[in-house]
Amino acid sequence: MIRRVSTTSSLSATAFGSFMKWSFQSSHFHGESLDSSVSPLLIPGVHVFHCPDVVGIVAKLSDCIAAKGGNILGYDVFVPENNNVFYSRSEFIFDPVKWPRSQMSEDFQTIARKFNAMSSVVRVPSLDPKYKIALLLSKQDHCLVEMLHKWQDGKLPVDITCVISNHERAPNTHIMRFLQRHGISYHYLPTTDQNKIEKEILELVKDTDFIVLARYMQVLSGNFLKGYGKDVINIHHGLLPSFKGRSPAKQAFDAGVKLIGATTHFVTEELDSGPIIEQMVERVSHRDNLRSFVQKSEDLEKKCLMKALKSYCELRVLPYGTLKTVVF
């Protein structure tokens, strides 16, 4: 059974470590700001909730917001069939004078305890800090370039702490000049089959909120994932399962496929098997040469990664068991 409520207009308030840990367990979240132009006195917030399904959850959450003078702008609910769990995401506006940020966290945590919630996360974009992230990549840099441009334009609401690569880049390249201009450090850490430099990477990323693998062609070990303990997001060159190994686009091209895809997923110990956040596809044909085929594939990867990161930062991604996600 699926219960879903959403609206584009104002609705009266009365009427989310590794994937297994999920950083949603934190009491606050960072990410993209919601539109705060509704009122100069009111600011937006978002809350996600995951708990066993019982009667009265929506009423209790709505009453919590209404009791402080808040107003719900949108509400999504998902209850899987034959699975006694409840998911919700609400967007609301409120007066921070009447409902201080610290009190808001306490109020939602009280409800979380009442319903034995697995996660209850509230975020106020204008008050909470942004994510601190690290970007890992190898030779291909199309996803990195896209992320840097979106970040510069204010469309990727994160703080990029560093870029780490197992490939060296000349100092006079566009990417290196961009990073230097914006004070983002670049770390060249060459890897071998015997040494993946994971201890050095862990030291560089220890203070980040999550990691993005922007076409990083090295396999992170289970020890690395456990040591980091937070989410790692990867962009994969295809619809999983798909063409694996080297030159996947050429493999698909030689096979004469008619659809190409990209998958953004959480990284787990099992290679390319983590819970999927986003997937995209595009048609190709016999008229495509290898160059146009690869270009379409790279463009798709960029779009898929950016959409997944946007959903993650906006608290739209929640765990659904151990293998799936709910994406509102």
From TrEMBL:
Keywords: Hydrolase, One-carbon metabolism. One of its GO terms (biological process) is 'de novo' IMP biosynthetic process. SUPFAM superfamilies: ACT-like, Formyltransferase. Gene3D superfamilies: 3.30.70.260, Formyl transferase, N-terminal domain. InterPro entries: ACT-like_dom_sf (IPR045865), ACT_dom (IPR002912), Formyl-FH4-Hydrolase_C (IPR041729), Formyl_transf_N (IPR002376), Formyl_transf_N_sf (IPR036477), GART_AS (IPR001555), PurU (IPR004810), PurU_ACT (IPR044074). PROSITE patterns: ACT, GART. One of its GO terms (molecular function) is formyltetrahydrofolate deformylase activity. Residues 46-129 form the ACT domain. It comes from the Eukaryota. This is ACT domain-containing protein. It comes from Brassica carinata. The lineage of its organism: Eukaryota, Viridiplantae, Streptophyta, Embryophyta, Tracheophyta.
